[in-house]
Amino acid sequence: MASSCVELLVLTLLLAPVLLQASAARHVVVVVLGDVGRSPRMQYHALSLAKSGFSVTLLGFYSKPRDELLQSDRIQIVELTELQSLGAGPRVLQYGVKVVFQAVYLLWKLMCTDPAAYIFLQNPPGLPAIAVCWFVGCLCRSKLVIDWHNYGYSIMGLVHGPQHPIVLLAEWYERFFGRLSHLNLCVTDAMREDLAENWRVRAVTLYDKPASFFKETPVDLQHKLFMKLGHMYPPFRSCQEPSDGTTERSAFTERDSRSGAVTHLHGRPALLVSSTSWTGLPLPRHPGCFEQLALSGDSLPSLVCVITGKGPLKEHYSHLISQKHFRHVQVCTPWLEAEDYPLLLGSADLGVCLHMSSSGLDLPMKVVDMFGCCLPVCAVNFKCLHELVRHGENGLVFKDAEELAVQLQMLFSNFPDPAGKLNEFRKNLRESEQLRWDESWQCTVLPLVTTK
Fold first, then answer.
1. DSSP codes, 11-39
2. What does the H/E/C string look like for 209-278?
3. CA–CA gap between residue 124 and residue 126 (Å, rounded)
4. What is the pLDDT of residues 178-197, one digit of tens each?
5. What's the CA gap between 382 and 388, in Å, rounded?
6. Per the record, where are the segments of Polar residues compositional bias (predicted)?
7. Percentage of the chain surpassing pLDDT 70?
8. How many whole angstroms separate alpha carbon 356 and alpha carbon 354?
9. Maximum distance among all alpha carbons in the chain?
């Protein structure tokens, strides 16, 4: 009996590494040292891997992700805890303490996770995540895959200045540890070329694609959304109540209660949508420019500007806007539920993007989502924006608020004009062959991963 137990123990010890390696081969860890709910690209990584038979552990700061992730029995979400600011001491010391805490904490979480064949990491933020994931990969024989969304040091440079010692240290760190990865993905060809020329890192460009729920919103759903938002935000409410009780009306649509038919109102306002982090913006200046053009006698509609998102200067700009008394422009800054944001984009007439890349090498995901809804876009121009926004084909690019106002004048002249530029852009977007995430990621990412 004793000898049988010894033999069983020896057999178990011999087979354990083989069994662990076999289970690890179908397991991937996806790391987001940030908000999971606001990291759509990494969510799509996890979904694509799960759909192809991998078990996925997704680590990140938790906010509600897509329902598909929560419903998948192949995806486990491990919530990370973010260290709050110390609130005392020099900023450099506070940052150093935060980095050390995150390094130890992430190391502990990864070591408590089942062994994986691959560790997918979003960068930025890469400090200290790249070094920690590489170290864990060495211990557990996992391959490190970095998805380069931007450069972390360039974002830090916006706050501290490009020559600040912390920024220079962060750049050295990112260059050194970035070269230790086994596979690299990036969001633009410009970033791929920069990684190759200046970092000696080989990467594969994988453009962002819109999720399937970003699409044009049918007019009946538009009406429901406008009526819902109208309870909280006046710009969505009808200025004129219907004379009879058989019609339900928003600022943009009306519904016949007897037939259930929904139509757009004649003479309705134009709906402009922008999502922003409320930093240094040209957008809050453009309503005044548009107001002046409308007052000059041009055939322009009234304009409802919906600005979503949150950021440090939101209250400041909201206060400035509230002091203006426009006749032809209304500005609304709602907080939208996750399921309402795609519906709003699919209901709008024009999107405005104010994304200013810190490196000049990444592209705004918000424009990708707008294009998924066949929504034409006006976007602030920078180095590689042409890889997404083709000026005069699916939208326009501008350099300042004055140029944006001129573009709005051109696009909204004689609105709604079936033969106008807005409809031409929308038609081009409908006809463009843009693959959705569930198709493109399975046929592009997974072969790269599984053959390395």
1. HHHHHHHHHHHHHHTTEEEEEEEEEGGG-
2. CCCCCCCCCCHHHHHHHHHHHHCCCHHHECCCCCCCCCEEEECCEEEECCCCCEEECCCCCEEEEEECCC
3. 5
4. 999 999 999 999 999 999 99
5. 11
6. 240-250
7. 79
8. 6
9. 100
Task: Check whether residue 273 and residue 180 sit in a common domain.
Answer: no
pLDDT of residue 319: 65
Half-sphere exposure of 7 (CA within 13 A, CB side): 4
Element (H, E) at 380: strand 377-380
- 386 with 276, same domain? yes
SS3 187: coil
On whether residue 15 sits in a domain, the answer given is no
Beta strand 262-264 with 253-256 is: antiparallel
Q: 75 lies in which domain range?
A: 28-84+94-209+437-451
In a domain, 264, yes or no: no
**416: helix, coil or strand?**
coil
Tell me whether residue 263 is in a domain.
no
Q: How far apart are the first and last CA of the chain?
A: 46
Same domain, yes or no: 102 and 203: yes
Cis ω on the peptide bond leading into residue 65 (within 30° of 0)? no
CATH code, 36: 3.40.50.2000
Enter the DSSP assignment of 400: S
Same domain, yes or no, for 404 and 444? no
Domain count across the chain: 2
Domain contains 10: no
Q: 126: which 2 tokens?
A: 């890469």
Pairing of strands 253-256, 247-249: antiparallel
Find the mean pLDDT for residues 369-374. Answer: 91
Q: Which two tokens stand for residue 150?
A: 């931007």
Query: Does residue 360 share a domain with residue 328?
Result: yes
Same domain, 223 and 193: no
Q: What is the mean pLDDT of residues 246-268?
A: 88
What's the CA gap between 164 and 167, in Å, rounded? 5
At residue 22, does pLDDT exceed 70? no
**147 and 224 share one domain:** no
DSSP 338: T
Q: Minimal CA–CA distance to 372: which of 261, 236, 256, 212? A: 212
Which of 99, 110, 195 minimizes the C-alpha distance to 147? 195
Asked if 85 contacts 62 with a C-beta cutoff of 8 angstroms, the reply is no
Q: Which amino acid is at 336?
A: L
- CA dihedral angle for residue 15, residue 20, residue 21, residue 22, rounded to 10 degrees: 90
| Residues 237/250, Cβ–Cβ less than 8 Å | yes
Statement to judge: residues 350 and 388 lie in one domain: yes
Among residues 330, 310, 362, 324, the alpha carbon closest in space to that of 237 is found at 330
Sign of the Cα torsion 39, 215, 337, 290 reads positive
